Amino acid sequence: MKCINCGGTMRYDVEKQGLVCDFCGAVKPLEKAEQQTDQVERSFDASLSQASTDWGITRRQITCKQCGAALLYDADQISGMCPYCGSAIVLDAVETNSCIAPTGIIPFTTTKEEVEKNYYKWNKFALWSPESFRKGKVLGNLVGVYVPFWTFDADTVTSYAGDFGTTVTRGDSQVTEYRKGSGVTEAFIDDVCIGASKRFVSNKKMNRVVQFKPSEIMPYTPEALAGFAAEKYSIDINEAWTLAQDTFKKRIERAACKRENAEFCRNMQMSTNFGNVKFRYFLFPVWLAACPYKGKIYYVVASGHDNRGLCDRPVSAAKIVLLILAILGVFSIPFISYVIMMLISILGQT
Q1: Which of 84-93, 136-145, 311-320 has the lowest mean pLDDT?
Q2: Each residue's pLDDT tens digit, 173-213
Q3: Which of 40, 62, 72, 299 could be stapled to 103 by a disulfide with Cβ–Cβ 3.0 to 4.6 Å?
Q4: What ranges do the domains of the chain cover?
């Protein structure tokens, strides 16, 4: 992004919630969500064949030689740091618009400084970690990256048959009674979210950190991306739709339970027709860092959207040993006292 005042490079500033010129300091505020009117959901039938590949700004795709992450950077950026492994990367001259452009984005609102403060708060009560790690300056350089996600909506019509259960009281206990049920249920299922990164699809820390409301997804604007890397999706729309259908199934089962006035269901057989399927491809902001400590790397994942965050930590063997000895000591006192009393009793009888 170029400044209209001086032609300098403008980058997204988290604190100012807008673009800031590196040279003259001019600020261009980011358009607020309530001012945006573009529809960010697209018809699934159009999918990749008609989906736009225009990101609004030219991006360079690089693959980190160290960890294999595929990342998209600003076209005018010539070097950077991989957010996943912390290795330095030099960008080549290859530009790309070959992948589908996002339709939505949640911009960074949590600054790097806020995450740094939170990191030492998170470690404050990690008493099992070495003191030099908990209180030392071990936090690596935080790198902001946008992680890709898909969401899906659909109208569903499902024929079902199965066992439906309700909880009943029998004497002093509660049991679940099941009965056969079948029928047809219609349900509109909204905002089924699927991670588009194979790197994070099963990452428990990432899944706990990424929390948002669908209403917080703004229509994509390239201004929010200026100065940040974005991971290219490694789970395409068709694979994501297959994964989403497992979540759809669970919601349809709940709709069938509601129709049958039941609390539980089992042995379900369902046939579902999906209609009016829509999707969003959006980007979520994440701060990542690698903390080197005694030859190992401990990773930090923090939301760029709120104050959630998690980190790996080493365990102090000395502290664990002392804790075990302390526990054994506490529980050994009654046993030792019992043995002494028994010995006194025996000696008294001789």
Answers
A1: 84-93
A2: 899 999 999 999 999 999 899 989 887 777 777 778 888 88
A3: 40
A4: 31-314, 316-350
Please give the Cα distance from 304 to 7 (Å, whole number).
29
CA distance 321 to 171: 49
- 223 neighbors 1 (Cβ within 8 angstroms): yes
Bridge partners, 218 (sequence order): 105
Q: Report the predicted TM-score, pTM, of the whole model to 2 decimal places.
A: 0.74
Torsion angles phi and psi, residue 238, rounded to 5: -70, -45
Alpha helices in the chain (DSSP H): 47-50, 112-122, 131-134, 204-209, 237-259, 317-349
Radius of gyration of the chain measured on its C-alpha atoms: 28
- Average pLDDT for the chain: 79
Cβ distance 47 to 277 under 8 Å?
no
First and final C-alpha spacing in the chain: 96
pLDDT tens-digit map of 102-161: 888 999 999 988 988 888 888 777 777 887 777 777 677 788 899 999 999 999 999 999
User: Which pLDDT band holds residue 253 (cuts at 50, 70, 90)?
Assistant: very high
E-strand spans in the chain?
Answer: 10-13, 18-21, 27-29, 42-43, 59-63, 70-74, 79-81, 88-90, 95-96, 104-105, 143-170, 173-195, 218-219, 229-231, 264-293, 296-303, 309-311
